[in-house]
Each structure stands twice: as C-alpha cells, then as structure tokens.
C-alpha cells in the first residue's frame, strides 16, 4: 500500500535513513595530531629561515599555529642548553585529592574559626540590642524593634 504523501527532497540521503546507509562520519570525532622530532626540527628551521612576510605561509601550509612552533623552539633551545625538555604539568593523583586528611583537617579548622567569629558577632549584637532597649526605656521612647 503506497502513501499519497510526497517524499521530502533529500530524504533518501539522510544518514539515519536505514541500517545500510548508516555510514560513520569520519569528521565527527576529532583526533590529536602528533609530530615526530624530525618534522618539528624541519618546520622550526624552515620557519626561522623564512623572511618576515612568509612565516605565516609556512604555518598555513603545514596547518600549524605560531604557538606550536614557539613551543618547539623553546624545547629545542632547552635541549641544546643541556636542560630537559619542558613538560606539561600533570594532575597530581593520590595525595591532594578530595579525601586528603590534611586538607580536610585544615578546612575543618578554618570553618571552626569562622563559626566562632559568627557566634561572637551574634552575642555582641544581642548585648547591643539589650543596651539599646535599656536606653530607650530610660528616656521614655519606644523601641523601633517593637511592633506597634
């Protein structure tokens, strides 16, 4: 039984049209590029040798950013001076986590100090309120805190 509803244009080439047509889009998930040491050395040398106006052309041709080349130059210079290549800082695991006893103890002490300050402020405000009521009763005026 055929339907009288006209088909939508381009409906047959929809990615979810059927199981046979469910091809994986290769550009759907990006991937991190990695560069060999020879490639980095070649690009850095070419970048440094290029005249001022053509440095950007090298970057465009290779699909790189200036920050890539700058980091590579810093690493090359560090290796040339005998120091180890700078590494990216990694997240510390183990100590320093959520349940670190030293961190929890320090936070508990800080919160206890804040609580003591808050309690002292509330106590002083209560005494001030009592003093103001005493002063207002002695002068014969009504307190602003009492409801009328």
Shape: elongated
Task: Please give the count of helices.
Answer: 4
Number of strands: 0
Cα-based radius of gyration, to the nearest Å: 36 Å
Query: What does the largest sheet look like?
Result: none
Judged by helices, strands and strand pairing, the structural class is mainly alpha
Could you give the order of the helices and strands? HHHH
Unreliable segments of 5+ consecutive residues: none
- Portion of residues within helices: 40-55%
Average pLDDT for all residues: 79
Calculate the terminal CA-CA distance, rounded to whole Å.
83 Å
The percent range for strand residues is under 5%
Region (Disordered): 1-25, 81-106
Protein name: Transposase
Biased composition (Basic and acidic residues): 97-106
How would you describe what is shown here?
This is Transposase. Residues 1-25, 81-106 are annotated as: Disordered. Residues 97-106 have a biased composition (Basic and acidic residues). It comes from Jatrophihabitans cynanchi. By secondary structure, the chain is an all-alpha fold. Among the domains are: 37-80; 100-148, no CATH class. Helices cover 51% and strands 0% of the residues. It is built from 4 helices and no strands. The protein starts with 36 loop residues before the first helix and ends in a 9-residue tail after the last helix. The mean pLDDT is 79.
């Amino acid at each position: 039984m055929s339907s009288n509803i006209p088909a939508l244009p381009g409906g047959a080439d929809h990615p979810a049209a059927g199981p046979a047509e469910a091809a994986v889009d290769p550009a759907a998930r990006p991937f991190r590029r990695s560069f060999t040491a020879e490639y980095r050395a070649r690009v850095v040398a070419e970048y440094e040798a290029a005249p001022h106006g053509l440095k950007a052309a090298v970057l465009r041709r290779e699909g790189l950013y200036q920050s890539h080349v700058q980091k590579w130059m810093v690493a090359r210079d560090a290796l040339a001076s005998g120091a180890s290549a700078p590494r990216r800082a990694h997240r510390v695991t183990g100590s320093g986590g959520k349940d670190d006893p030293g961190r929890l103890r320090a936070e508990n002490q800080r919160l206890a100090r804040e609580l003591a300050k808050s309690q002292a402020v509330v106590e002083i405000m209560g005494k001030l309120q009592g003093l103001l009521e005493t002063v207002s009763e002695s002068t014969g005026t009504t307190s602003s805190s009492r409801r009328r």
